[in-house]
């Protein structure tokens, strides 16, 4: 089968880590394992610099037509003062919304070789493997009104609106329950039903979907503030956490930082399956940001971007077995002690971005 | 001077930990150090059980007239199904709103004797002393509309609204800057300006107040998700964190859990100074909840409640020197190895709620 991959490297270290994925894609094509058609576009600050938008209509059209978007990272101090509507993040938010990528999957895995890099005690994080399922196209990110109004007399009023409808909660709940069945069969649903009406609705719908469709999966409800606390106290109590867009933003960052391997964590954002073809629109991106402070120094860790491509192989490109092999190649390289700066601990780094990418591809070739 | 204290012990372990504060108050009166008039009321589930409301009008009036409210904790599984408007939390939220307690101060301090109780490495949390200043009467907690609407066709829509006006951000920013001046002179302002209009406004106002009134204080802006991450990675980078109601809820829980001493952390909620008397309305409560699972077992740690009374001595009762002494008494008891269950680590507890309270009062008497 042939697949269209649309690459949006973005800003900062985005292009550097994407380059390592491109090398792996080229190898898949050269070996005849897959037929990947690759196109490239601009997003974020680099798109703004080129044409004054965080993403162009032409690139949006290519993203819509692709089988998977591979996304690097956006933003940096250079664009801190650009108008709100064309700030770098606007490109990412438009991709999520217009492609209908409602399900954001963020695994937080603590690699044994790296457990000491965590700020948490080894026994708290060693072997950690949780999955945050974050709703990505609703909530306070997109609800209207979203305005700043001048009230005169020196006062302004800022408004953001959190909106959730039944169907939005139903579909993300199903994603979480389905994934839990392939894992340790437990879902923790996080909201603030004691303060928010959307939390009350969230709780009600998740409870109903569970009872009607997934009675065999263990379900617990947890208040989002308590969930943040429990993630710090004893994260291994969790398997799948399902939560809204804003809580998901914060909780997934906490979970990522627990692992001590921020430069290694991938994510997948998926749409609903197409009624005819069954294909889902999708976007894959590392959890880390554009890290402008280290851009161009060769210090960036490409593993999160490579592992994001691994998630694309699994969820969009029909190559789950190669996704497994890519994970094995990453684990092998880590076991050999190859380290970019972010995961070197008190030792000096012994690999640049390119060397890490090459080492992983080298291991992949042996599998 | 004579002061009116209004005690709302609430549910679960609330009454047990409040009892230890009552003993300390009685001692202050007996020694003639202060003249505290004490009255008691009901809040939360216990108020609902008594008269169907989370707090009665009579008790609200007493709270309004008091110099300080001492609040235990509310909630428990017993009241999980009561109607939204009269759920236990509604009593606390009404107190905050009607008393105008816009400034919530949550210190996160890691007591040296307890650093090992943290899930984080000792070097990450030892000596930690940060202060979260949370806006408490605005944002998504109180904004309208806050509704669930039935759309027919099996669909409902939940809405919560985050609203902030200039004056609300100005006054909480001033509280944060003023407190920073008495500490390490640094304020970190956390919002999501890349996604939320209220975040854009928050950022703008904090920046303006800083430049105009507090140029000598160091100010940094941090995205709320990154702040949660940084709290886990290296919390000692922070001094004062100022943030909105909802982010403050989550970030202060993360900060509290870092210290490994959740049962020990107090909080103060303050209103604006009265134009005539200069007095602020105020409420003092432990950061921990009602812990229904251990209620009645004598396992509850009264330190957070006692330290909350210490904050009342400092901020509302004109007895800052006695607040210092109370802190010293707590530190002395900890140094002696006296431990309730929550802070005993792998050792068995050697003190009940009452024994811990008595030990602290005993030390106080020596100072
Ligand atoms: C860049 C930003 C808009 C984004 C978000 O808030 O969703 C990021 O923090 C994330 O988690 O992917
Ligand atoms: C009990 C609840 C309403 C409250 C809140 O969300 O503010 C609590 O979590 C807190 O932090 O004081």
From TrEMBL, chains A, B:
GO BP: L-leucine biosynthetic process
Boundaries of every Isopropylmalate dehydrogenase-like domain copy: 4-360
Cofactor binding summary note: Binds 1 Mg(2+) or Mn(2+) ion per subunit.
Principal location listed in the UniProt entry: cytoplasm
Reactions catalysed according to its record: (2R,3S)-3-isopropylmalate + NAD(+) = 4-methyl-2-oxopentanoate + CO2 + NADH
Superkingdom, natural source: Bacteria
Subcellular location: Cytoplasm
EC number(s) given by UniProt: 1.1.1.85
GO MF terms, alphabetically ordered: 3-isopropylmalate dehydrogenase activity; magnesium ion binding; NAD binding
Reported function: Catalyzes the oxidation of 3-carboxy-2-hydroxy-4-methylpentanoate (3-isopropylmalate) to 3-carboxy-4-methyl-2-oxopentanoate. The product decarboxylates to 4-methyl-2 oxopentanoate.
Record text on subunit structure and interactions: Homodimer.
Protein name: 3-isopropylmalate dehydrogenase
Source species: Aestuariivirga litoralis
